[in-house]
Amino acid sequence: MTPPLRLGTRGSKLAMAQSRGVAEALTAATGRAVNLVEITTYGDVSNEPLATIGGTGVFVNALREALLDDRVDLAVHSLKDLPTTPAENLTVAAIPERADPRDVLCARDDLTLAELPPGSTIGTGSPRRAAQLRALGLELEVVPVRGNVDTRMAKVTSGELDGIVLARAGLSRLGRLDAVTEVLDPLQMLPAPGQGALAVECRTADEELVGTLAVLDDPMTRAAVTAERTLLAVLEAGCSAPVGAYAVVAEGDAPQSDELYIRGAVVSSDGAISIRKSVTGPVEEAEQLGRTLAGDLLDDGAGTVVGAELKVPKKENVS
Ligand SMILES: NCc1[nH]cc(CCC(=O)O)c1CC(=O)O
């Protein structure tokens, strides 16, 4: 009998929910048993600002060490927290079909952004969300927050904040979509590159497992996030950068005629400069489309925005 696969996961409710989902899908598709192995990361036990302890990389790195030390066989990451440079000796063997990548507002009294009075406080630790909120010109006051999804939502329930902006995908996995008061239109709030998608990683040398995990891969999601992450990489911006991207694949009628449509935004932290562009092209050219979009944004001055943001001290690293 083949032994159960060991799936490394962080212990947070969100991480456990998405790891359980991947484990179940894997067992359903292959018949292999999967055991979850909880890996505690420094980022989980420390209350220090993420930026001072290495950004969201601290979550990813502990799981990667567990893979390289052969303590686990596979690991599940939120793709938007994964650095764009690939890890040596590890392979992202599957990117499953992604959840709705949009951001949402959870506000008091069932209010939407437009209904919140001037001066309302909106919590987010993400420079991308903060910049796009400020660009709306609604006199909203952006307040930095950290902590897991429950901790952040409690700040609205307690009245400490008027609202918070979160990823719809996270709330969906936690069964908390009831708290959503507005799904934010990407026209105003472009999500983080890779948002809503998961990455299933294993050792490259585990060739058989690389092949097995491929059953979970969704080529359309992979193409979309490849374009989004290439944009991020070309702009040399990390997960804390004020960069939004959202790609979708539209199935064409003829074989090989699927089209990828990607939108990107670079927004200065005060919201004064907001550069938005989009490109369309064959899905096979996902990487090139991300590159082209980055070039178009840079032509319009994105370099000064991203460059200026990088010079200020790094903010909390929660995209
Ligand atoms: N930045 C933290 C983070 N990383 C992944 C998710 C869940 C959504 C996803 O998988 O993209 C969240 C929470 C959030 O942004 O609200």
UniProtKB/TrEMBL annotation:
One BP term from GO: protoporphyrinogen IX biosynthetic process
Protein family: Belongs to the HMBS family.
Name of the protein this chain belongs to: Porphobilinogen deaminase
Assembly notes: Monomer.
Pfam family, one: Porphobil_deamC
Swiss-Prot/TrEMBL catalytic activity: 4 porphobilinogen + H2O = hydroxymethylbilane + 4 NH4(+)
Species name: Phytoactinopolyspora alkaliphila
Domain Porphobilinogen deaminase N-terminal span(s) in chain numbering: 5-209
Cofactor binding note from Swiss-Prot or TrEMBL: Binds 1 dipyrromethane group covalently.
GO-annotated cellular components: cytoplasm
Top EC group: transferase
Entries under InterPro entries matching the protein: HemC (IPR000860), Porphobilin_deaminase_cofac_BS (IPR022419), Porphobilin_deaminase_N (IPR022417), Porphobilinogen_deaminase_C (IPR022418), Porphobilinogen_deaminase_C_sf (IPR036803)
PROSITE patterns: PORPHOBILINOGEN_DEAM (PS00533)
Further details from the record: The porphobilinogen subunits are added to the dipyrromethane group.
Domain of life: Bacteria
Gene3D superfamilies tied to this protein: Periplasmic binding protein-like II (3.40.190.10), Porphobilinogen deaminase, C-terminal domain (3.30.160.40)
Molecular function via GO: hydroxymethylbilane synthase activity
EC number in record: 2.5.1.61
Residue ranges annotated for the Porphobilinogen deaminase C-terminal domain, each copy included: 224-298
